[in-house]
UniProtKB/TrEMBL annotation, chain A:
Keywords of this entry: Cell membrane, Membrane, Polyamine biosynthesis, Spermidine biosynthesis, Transferase, Transmembrane, Transmembrane helix
Protein name: Polyamine aminopropyltransferase
Subunit comment: Homodimer or homotetramer.
Organism for this UniProt entry: Adhaeribacter soli
Membrane topology (UniProt): Multi-pass membrane protein
Enzyme Commission numbers on file: 2.5.1.16
Pathway note: Amine and polyamine biosynthesis; spermidine biosynthesis; spermidine from putrescine: step 1/1
């Protein structure tokens, strides 16, 4: 009888040690993932954890009675706090003022609880062992546990279970030990039933966490989006997320809204029709960017158009817009039309080697928020663009918001002019975007705008377009530098203006 | 008690976890060790004494296919009808402007950029215009540079205090007092840029030989750059790092071993203006200056012979006899030329030039010393990032022994360049370059890989996992060291004097600094002197 009590308690020392180190490693790893700079994170987490263990052992002297019951109680607490710590950290990152404070509080709490346990267990066992045996045994199991944790954590737990499941699993170990101890000391401890109850509840909670950890991870992502996520894909270039609520679909690229199905018709009508409508017999149309096929949908309204070439870098984008049923409804299967050729290529590379000319060109790139995309708005690119426009042809470029980012917008206009394009700036109100800017450009002496618009359009008619060409007093044209590969002023303007707006 | 034990146990454990993301054994980085054919070069030391039986004649022979030799040849081709050939030891011409390539991109093995040339360098501007680097001139006569050749934005970033800042002049987290000193230094340099001597010439210009003879400026050659800074009460550690970085960048020497005249020339020699860019932009290409070397070489294909080791240049009956070994065929040849240009460094001339002292063969080569360099090209899985300014063309780590790295793919127009290659520059400055050179030759690829990764890990802790291949190129005699007293010293002046109007000399070591413009004008000047008898 005596021997098995000792064995059981020493086994629980082993479990406590293993779990304790795992929680420490989980916190360190997560902090490195989320905050970067792993040396600092591990170093400070370990320091904070060990110091908290010190606080725990200091506090242990205030526990004078019912030591076994307290040990079980603390074990359950460790199980719950440690087990759910990684989930809490994931959920709270980006959502609280000071993530570091939460992180260190959680580390401190776990440390204090774990720090309480070993002194308590030494006192529980003090009459059952010689002091020298007691010290030797407890340290032995403590350190074996630490070794085990440190080896299995990087080699098996993180690669095979992931961080969330790992913490739940070790929480479960703690809780199971607590439950076994409850039964074993059933007669000796106070509040046995209450303790058993909490053990069972903790076990159920942790098992649930383990089973649902994938869903939890998905949920942490979904918090970034107000609506239900119906599709996600990670391409080499961007994260594509499609959300849905009762009245619209929304597409996000790297977290930036690309369109809402409720008002995208405004954007795409404004993008395509003013430029395309005036062209006499437009046969060939080029769309750069716009892998969603929505601009192509508008282009295909013109029966004269015989050929549309769409160049989009991202295969994932054109894939979902040729496969996802709701999205096919949205773009009316435009990309599947026999008139349409989809090319997945880098637009700059493509345009340099392309020799074909087009009557109308739609340039619908992502906003110039980084130096990579910024290249597609430079005078060098626009010089290439000149080559692909057929005589009498027109071009349209989406050019961010002239209200929020006037220097960015007019920089696009001025850069087009600098390479010899005649420009016609205009803008439209798209509720989910705000006041959005476009630039029509041509190499001809004037624009062709006389014709009435197609009657089936929901937004545009001639009167509306005339208004769109008017820039009100608070949105005047601006002098800017020309955007070049060697200055990328547009990226600087864009960061500054949108940065100010979003903060 | 337990806690203190645990603390002892916990820390090494934590250490092992830190490495846990890295497999237990460090990843071995594959790659090759390369360099100029120094075995062939070292054949020279055996003082080959074979007298070739095969003889041909030429009007002119140019020895050395670096930028000076190529530019001399170009000038000859354009301005004379002389029958000439160019002999190069290596399999490829280009000298320090060598380049390489892998399946995805080209990259430099040496010199990798040309600052906008000063507007009075007519021949160089013409060369750039011929090759469409300059597309025209504006109404004010300023050159319009082709946008693809101007370094794209972002150009430079510096990793300092845990953050990538824009530009290389330290400012992120730099104390106010240091910033003031840095500004004062830059103001002084701006003054020096415009300074003129009593003879009306710029104090510092390019080519160096066109600089003012005013003793007020020339005496700066008699102290070191580090001493000059101290004399001007410029003591900031940040400033000293920056100036030291610049000396190593252009000369491969530390500021404490660099002539102050040369050090200031780095900042004050260039005064270019352009129609369509700020004056501090540089011209660069994915393969670095190899792009320029290829353009120089193009019209010369018929005249160039590579893999030819010249081992003796002597005067025979009023002609210059050039004896060389065809390395591939292992055959010996002699060319009897009317005249000859040695576009070779003086440490080579010392071995091959066989002229009696009374004819001008008495030359002091000891004053010429050369800095060794290591250049590595690393093929990466993905571009290196970091906090702050995004990946730029030139990426420098504050406090590092290296000059940082340049992204070879930067000038590609692709939106997201795949399979990036970075070129890592490590000068090996030492008061005793011969010792540094010996040590460099002893190292294996593994040794270089570890050394280079240790430097890169200062800014990119996990870069090892990202490296697919790491090739290293050792330049034993990378570039001339402008040590104190060298640029305006007698030895250099004596070494550039032609021998009997038959043998002419062209090399950046006769300028004292190893830059493209100097090499270009060394070649032109030697060819002009030879043909036109110009002094």
């Amino acid at each position: 009888m005596r021997i098995s009590i000792q064995a059981l308690l020493l086994f629980s020392v082993f479990v406590v040690a293993t779990c304790g180190l795992v929680y420490e490693l989980v916190a360190g790893t997560l902090a490195s993932y989320l905050l970067g700079d792993s040396v600092t994170q591990f170093s400070t987490i370990i320091g904070a954890y060990l110091f908290s263990m010190g606080i725990g052992s200091y506090l242990s002297k205030y526990f004078n009675r019912n030591l076994i019951a307290w040990f079980i109680q603390i074990e359950v607490l460790v199980a719950v706090v440690g087990g759910s710590s990684s989930t809490l950290l994931y959920l709270l990152f980006d959502r609280v003022e000071s993530f570091r404070l939460v992180l260190y509080l959680l580390v401190a709490l776990t440390g204090i609880l774990v720090g309480l346990e070993i002194p308590l267990i030494m006192r529980i066992l003090k009459d059952r062992f010689e002091f020298k045996d007691l010290v030797s045994q407890i340290f032995t199991f403590d350190y074996i546990g630490a070794l085990l944790a440190s080896v299995v954590f990087p080699l098996f737990l993180v690669p095979f279970l992931g961080i969330l499941r790992t913490s739940y699993l070790f929480g479960l170990f703690n809780a199971v030990v607590a439950l076994v101890l409850c039964f074993y000391f059933n007669r000796e401890i106070r509040w046995a039933t209450y303790l058993k109850g909490t053990c069972v509840m903790a076990i159920l909670f942790l098992m649930a966490g383990m089973v649902y950890s994938d869903k939890i991870l998905a949920f942490t992502e979904s918090l970034n989006y107000p609506d239900k996520i119906v599709y996600t894909a990670q391409s080499p270039y961007q994260r594509i997320v499609l959300t849905k609520n009762s009245h619209d679909y929304r597409l996000f690229l790297n977290g930036n809204l690309q369109f809402s199905s409720a008002d995208e018709y405004r954007y795409h009508e404004a993008l395509v029709h003013p430029g395309l409508n005036g062209i006499e017999k437009p046969e060939k149309v080029l769309v750069l960017g716009g892998g969603d096929g929505l601009a192509v949908r508008e282009v295909l309204r013109y029966p004269d158009v015989k050929k549309v070439v769409l160049v989009d870098l991202d295969k994932e984008m054109t894939h979902i817009f040729t496969h996802h049923a709701s999205l096919l409804d949205l773009n009316r299967k435009s990309l599947l039309s026999p008139k349409v050729t989809v090319v997945n290529a880098d637009a700059f590379q493509w345009i340099k080697t392309n020799t074909e000319q087009f009557d109308f060109v739609v340039v619908d790139f992502p906003d110039p928020g980084n130096y990579s995309v910024g290249k597609l708005y430079t005078n060098t690119f626009y010089n290439q663009l000149k080559r692909v426009v057929a005589p009498g042809g027109q071009v349209v470029i989406q050019a961010t918001s002239p209200f929020v980012a006037p220097n960015s917008y007019w920089c696009v206009v001025n850069t087009l002019q600098a390479v010899g394009f005649r420009t016609l700036p205009y803008h439209a109100h798209v509720p989910s975007f705000g006041d959005w800017g476009f630039v029509m450009a041509t190499l001809e002496p004037g624009f062709k705008l006389e014709k009435e618009f197609l009657p089936e359009l929901k937004f545009l008619n001639k009167a509306t377009f005339e208004q769109m060409c008017v820039f009100p007093k608070d949105m005047p044209g601006k002098q800017t530098e020309v955007n070049k590969l060697n200055n990328q002023v547009l990226v600087h303007y864009f960061e500054k203006e949108w940065g100010k707006y979003l903060n | 008690m337990i806690q203190s034990f645990k603390a002892l146990a916990g820390l090494p454990l934590a250490g092992s976890i830190l490495n846990a993301c890295v497999p237990e054994t460090k990843k071995v980085i594959p790659g090759k060790l390369k360099g100029p054919d120094f075995k062939a070069g070292h054949l020279l030391r055996k003082a080959l004494s074979v007298v070739p039986t095969q003889t041909e004649t030429k009007d002119v022979v140019i020895i050395g296919g670096g930028i000076s030799g190529l530019s001399a040849a170009c000038w000859l081709k354009q301005n004379s009808d002389q029958d000439f050939c160019l002999l190069e030891l290596e399999e490829e011409t280009g000298g320090n402007s060598r380049g390489g390539k892998n399946a995805h991109t080209v990259f430099p093995w040496g010199a990798h950029y040309l600052p906008l040339p000063n507007n009075d360098l007519t021949e160089l501007l013409a060369f750039l215009q011929e090759n469409e680097v300059i597309t025209g001139f504006n109404a004010a006569g300023l050159p319009i540079y082709r946008d693809e050749c101007l370094c794209f934005d972002p150009e430079e970033r510096l990793y300092i205090n845990g953050h990538w800042q824009e530009g290389l002049v330290p400012n992120w987290g730099v104390p106010e007092a240091d910033l003031k000193q840095i500004n004062r230094f830059l103001e002084l340099m701006a003054e020096m840029k415009q300074a003129k001597g009593t003879d009306g010439k710029f104090a510092f210009t390019i080519p160096i030989s066109a600089s003012s003879a005013d003793e007020n400026f020339r005496r700066l050659d008699k102290l070191t750059m580090a001493e000059w800074l101290i004399q001007n009460k410029l003591t900031s550690d940040y400033l000293h790092w920056y100036v030291n970085y610049c000396c190593r960048d252009d000369f491969g020497t530390d500021a404490k071993d660099t002539s102050a005249w040369a050090g200031i020339h780095y900042f004050a020699g260039r005064k270019a203006q352009a129609a369509n860019t700020d004056p501090d932009r540089v011209l660069t290409w994915p393969e670095g200056n190899n792009w320029l070397a290829q353009r120089l070489r193009k019209p010369l294909e018929k005249h160039i012979r590579t893999g030819k080791l010249v081992y003796k240049v002597s005067l025979v009956k009023g002609n210059v006899a050039i004896d060389y070994l065809d390395i591939a065929q292992n055959t010996y040849h002699r060319i009897l030329a009317g005249k000859c240009i040695l576009a070779t460094p003086q440490f080579v001339n010392e071995r091959i030039l066989n002229i009696q002292p009374e004819q001008g063969g008495n030359r002091n080569y000891k004053a010429f010393s050369y800095a060794p360099w290591a250049v590595a090209n690393l093929a990466l899985e993905s571009p290196p990032a970091g906090r702050g300014v995004p990946l730029s063309w030139d990426n420098v780590v504050y406090g590092s022994k290296s000059l940082g790295y340049v992204l070879a793919n930067h000038q590609q127009l692709q939106i997201y360049p795949e399979n990036p290659v970075i070129t890592f520059y490590l000068p090996l400055p030492d008061e005793d370059p011969a010792k540094a050179r010996r040590m460099a030759y002893e190292k294996k690829q593994e040794d270089w890989a570890e050394l280079i990764l240790a430097e890169l890990e200062k800014a990119h802790p996990f870069i090892r996992e990202n490296v697919k291949n790491l090739d290293v190129w050792i330049w034993g005699h990378g570039m001339i060291r402008p040590s104190v007293g060298f640029i305006w010293g007698e030895e250099k002046a004596a070494a550039e004097k032609p021998v009997l109007d038959k043998i002419f000399f062209a090399h950046t070591d006769l300028s004292g600094i190893s830059i493209f413009e100097e090499a270009f004008y060394q070649g032109i000047r030697a060819a002009q002197r030879m043909v036109e008898g110009k002094a």
